[in-house]
Write a structure and sequence with these properties.
The complex is a heterodimer of chains A (546) and B (183).
Chain A (H helix, E strand, L loop, with lengths): L1 H13 L10 H5 L3 H29 L10 H36 L7 H20 L22 H4 L3 H28 L12 H32 L13 H35 L6 H15 L14 H13 L1 H15 L8 H24 L1 H7 L3 H31 L5 H27 L14 H29 L43 H5 L2
Helix pairs in contact in A: 3-4, 3-5, 3-17, 4-5, 4-7, 4-9, 4-15, 5-7, 7-8, 8-9, 8-10, 9-10, 9-12, 9-13, 9-15, 10-12, 12-13, 13-15, 13-16, 15-16, 15-17, 16-17
Chain B lengths: L2 H37 L27 E9 L5 E5 L3 E4 L5 E9 L5 E10 L7 E5 L5 E4 L4 E10 L9 E10 L8
Parallel strand pairs in B: 1-9
Antiparallel strand pairs in B: 1-3, 2-4, 4-8, 5-7, 5-9, 6-8
The chains are: A mainly alpha (546), B alpha+beta (183).
Amino acid sequence: MSAVVDEHDHHADDHHDHGPAKGILRWIVTTNHKDIGTMYLVFALAMFFVGGAMAMVIRAELFEPGLQFVDPAFFNSMTTMHALVMVFGAVMPAFVGLANWQIPLMIGAADMALPRMNNMSFWLLVAGVLLLASTLFMEGGAPNGGWTLYPPLVLQPITVGKALPFAVFSVHLLGISSIMGAINIIATITNMRAPSMRMMDMPLFVWTWLITGFLLIAVMPVFAGAVTMLLTDKFFHTSFFNAAGGGDPVLYEHIFWFFGHPEVYIMILPTFGVASTIIPIFARKPLFGYASMVWATGAIAFLAFIVWAHHMFTAGMPLAGELYFMYATMIIAIPTGVKVFNWTATMWDGAMTFETPMLFSIAFVVLFTMGGFTGLMMSIAPSDFQYHDTYFIVAHFHYTLVPASIFMLMAAGYFWLPKWTGHMYNEKIGQLHFWLSAISVNILFFPQHFLGLAGMPRRIPDYAVQFADWNMISSIGGFIFGASQLLFLYIVIDTVRGGTGEKVTDEVWEDAAKHGLEWTLPSPVPYHTWTTPPTIVPTEHVLDSH
Amino acid sequence: MSESVGKKNAKLARTLLIIAVAMFGFGYALVPIYDVLCEWKWIERDRPDDIKKVPEVAYEVDLSREITVEFITMLNESTPMEFRAEKKQIKVHPGEYNTVNFYATNKTNKDLLARAIPSFSPAVISGYFEKIMCFCFDEQIFKPQETKTLPMRFTINPKIPKEYNTITLSYTYFDNTEKSVKK
């Protein structure tokens, strides 16, 4: 191992004059994977708070029955924009940011394969999100027909105002941005690995991103196509979804969910990758079942393409179709179960310690599994008729996104920030942030299961009085959760500016260098790394074999 | 980065870009694929594709059964019309022929090109509901303020499964004046 570090240090001396450019231009024109990764992460964090503020508006309005703060159209804009901002502005860019930072470090590459395209995909993302945000200030308000943009609702004057074309072009930009990001990541992983690193030596974060990249390339263009059809139906008299012209609105649902289901796995597979990276280090054991983790990821990605209509059980399908999509959906529980058991087995008998990243990871395993189980409940077609479009589905997908994707993004922040900055975060505040988040996220979302089972529909600003108590509890949880995230913002800023002042080692975490290449580099990571590829590759696979 | 890696990257990026463009095309290809799947009954439409004229054939009327047929009339978005059925519902025996009149009025002072689209509930019976005459077969041109009487003659195939006692038939009028209609 030391040979690798020495070699690197020697190289860093050669290149000490190649630091970052000075001033604001460094960030605008940069092609450095670390700079771009940082920009993605900062942007995603900012959007997390924007989307979070929208969620606070929603929870404030739902605190009590009746209309208190906002008018119904604005409320519906908030549910629509909260979803779009969180999905396309926060979670996806955050994982692209992690990929930019970590993949080259983990596979021993000097940079991403296509650095200039990397810069462009980031700035297209910013343009896309700004275009989307601009609709908030338009006559008629932001889109308020739901993030799925279902016709005919989304094409009606009352729901679109002037916003529809802006939302559509925003989706185009975001789509192009994430497709370019995906192409870059796939090319980096395929061509830029250290010569000694075989595919089955790659860390799981790299594996999950490789597969996610293919999902992105396969489905983002389909979504772009679907919204283009909406646009031409609205303005150019086509009839893709217009029954009068021989079209069918249900067709849109099929196209949308052909994109939409892989899309939810685009947000969860890198989450799995982060969990598979963090858990072994704090359990001080190699990842259990490395190969099965890789195959399970591939299986989930494949299944993502053949289960879309389980979002549409109530839209009208022949019995055979309902049964097919029901059983196909249930099969997803198998590879997902493999993963959950593997994480559990990794922790089993391990010398575990409970630093903040590990706490978030354990909470992820438990709470994501709960979200998975409610997913299984809804995969049962006849039961889904009760759950469909109620708060039960809202509880389900928030359990799979907030204490899963968001928690693992937080965990990734705590886990890698010391490596990136060379400063240790404040563990006490980190633990406080964890416990506040983990408790309040359950106060926030668990009651929504009860509301859904009792029949409360989603996307409404007002509700019948029998739902009042659980809504109030849910809102209180929401406010605590929202406020707790300010602690994370504080910790990130504090860590970047010096943290606890404790000097972090190159490994940061005990024996981390056995688990991944990035821990053999100095802390903080120099601006240029792996200009000479590493010769020894410490990976889960190597550890597995001894 | 050596030259060969740069070339490999460019080549792979090109291939992946082609896949992305092809997937954009695939999104559009789903439109005809959907029509075919509907025709094969893999996906079920409550709006039958085959809103076709059926020749009047003499069925043996099944007097032992009585099916209630309900009519719903609707206007899409801001279609400037009035539209109603002469009765809300009728009771029919499978195999017998009935005619129901609908009335539609153009409320504007301009010519109006309009089209009525039917929808059935439950969806599965659409195959047993046979129309000999229906205004929903074509678009109609309404002169300013014109009211048309629109007859719909139908029968229910006696082979309709026993469990169906009520059929709801809804018509929605769409303003097609500005649309170039895909036939």
